[in-house]
Amino acid sequence: MTAHNTELAGSRMLVVDDEESIRFTFSNFLVDEGYAASTAEDYQGAIKLLEASKFDLVFVDIILGGKTGLDLLSKIKEMAPETEVIIITGAPTVGTASTALRLGALDYIVKPVRQETLLRVAGKALEHKRLIADKEAYRLNLEAIFNSVEDAIVTVDKDLVVTELNSAVGTLCGVRRDTAKGAPVMGITFQCSGACLKALKETVATGEVIRLSNVGCASSKHPDQVVCVTATPLLKRDGTAIGGVMVIRDETPLLELKKCLAATRKFSRVIGQSPGMRRVLAMVDALADVQTSVLVTGESGTGKEVVADALHSVGSRRNANLVKVNCGALSEELLESELFGHVKGAFTGAHKDKIGRFQRADGGTLFLDEIGEMSPRMQVRFLRVLETMEFERVGESMPIKVDVRIVAATNRDLEKQMKSGGFREDLYFRLKVVEIPLPPLRERKEDIPLLVRHFLDKMNDKFSRTVEGVSDAVMDLFMAHPWPGNVRQLENTMEHAFALGRRNIIGTVDLPGDFLNGRGRSLKPEDRDAQAIFDALERAGQNKSEAARLLGISRRTLYRRLDEISSES
């Protein structure tokens, strides 16, 4: 004979009986069925075997030499609670049976025991053991999932008695699981005002979902803690509430992020809390009302124009004009006319008088971007205007006096350009009364979450969307990316995602293809197969079965490809 369930074949059995014939017979029956069987004639012999090996099932005679089978049953449950025990008895009584079951025996059988009965009882015992093990594994998996959630979760029955809570409740609410489980939830001292408990009580009473936002949840460790609460009823099929579940999410980090944004927005979109940006913000604040020229330097896309906006908006000139000129976008003749203006007939095409940008900026600020592109002749004239704040329009000799603050910007190395003769030394030092150097984004990556939040708000307004954020995978990519185009590249990447994405969370599938090719993984750019797999996993919320379906491959193939990608990276 062989075991009916191949999963149970090879299970280890122990037969404990003081009759050698029963030990021999049971052992042969079990071995023939495919089980591994051992025998012992008394309590001490059984204990030695149990100490040396693990057994799935033990048959114990109620009467042994010296101690009884019930004594051995108690010891087995102490040593190996997961081991199933069947009591063998020649004269069953109600008292003996109830005691055996109370001590943990699964069942008992009466002598004489037929082969069919022995094997049937053994099979049921092993199946019961497997089901218990599966149930425990399922419980542990659920508990692991439950406790992996960062939000605090509390479930109650219809009488508001706590049936379960995860470890985050201890962290967020200061409530211990061992004291709260099984206790009335309204009697538990949470470290907040109790609004969350009232919501849970209401949801059980009414069967309706209750949502609360910006709930104060202060404690001695977290005096500024703020949470949002969602209480949802647990309903039977007929709609009757049989309990409720409360989810508490810590909103403090998000609020702190918004506070940081609010604090930096006073500097007109200069976003950042990194050491480098703190120095920039401090300089902007200190220079707001100091009427001196400022040179803003930094790589392309670092936000030089934004700093110019901030210098103007926080100072006493903020009610006057901020006028901007891109020196690299205009020819020498056009730049001269743009800066100083011209009179009618000054040159071909001058059909009427024109006020220059110096004059338009009178009382305010003139921002000269890409100052390093200015021609030598224009540098001479511009220097004279800086020193006197007087100029003549093109085609006119009458001087015009203005009060203008100059903020210039460049991504070039002006000092190097000056040494090579491309930029005047006197103009360089006249502009560089104070220099504000902007760090590249790769040197201030701690500012990326702030910038992402800022661009989310900006893009939501621009596209009339309600995108809540970016996925963890996207944020990981952002933090790993070198950002050669700096903040401008990040903004363009976000705008691309908004333009093409349709979900309320930006995923990797929404990012530009050229960005993903440099996503920071150790993948060759031409590995399109790997790219498709990561995108499918993102779309499927990391559910591998769904990702395999989207790709049109089996789960086995997906797992194999993931292993290959992992070994390549």
Written description of the protein model:
With 569 residues, the chain is α/β, with parallel strands linked by helices. It has 4 domains: 132 residues, Rossmann fold (3-Layer(aba) Sandwich); 102 residues, PAS domain (Beta-Lactamase); 181 residues, P-loop containing nucleotide triphosphate hydrolases (Rossmann fold), CATH 3.40.50.300; 127 residues, Orthogonal Bundle (Helicase, Ruva Protein, domain 3), CATH 1.10.8. Helix content is 45%, strand content 18%. A 5-stranded parallel beta sheet has the order 2-1-3-4-5, with helices on both faces. The two termini are 51 Å apart. About 2% of the residues have low confidence.
Task: Give the fraction of residues assigned to helices.
Answer: 40-55%
User: Can you tell me the CATH topology of the largest domain?
Assistant: Rossmann fold
Per CATH, the class of the largest domain reads: Alpha Beta
Summarize the main sheet: 5 strands, parallel
Poorly predicted spans: 519-527
Strand-residue proportion: 15-25%
Q: How does CATH name the architecture of the largest domain?
A: 3-Layer(aba) Sandwich
Q: Could you name the CATH homologous superfamily of the largest domain?
A: P-loop containing nucleotide triphosphate hydrolases
Backbone structural class: alpha/beta
The number of distinct helices, counting runs of at least 4 residues, comes to 23
How many strands? 21
Arithmetic mean of pLDDT: 83
Strand order of the largest sheet: 2-1-3-4-5
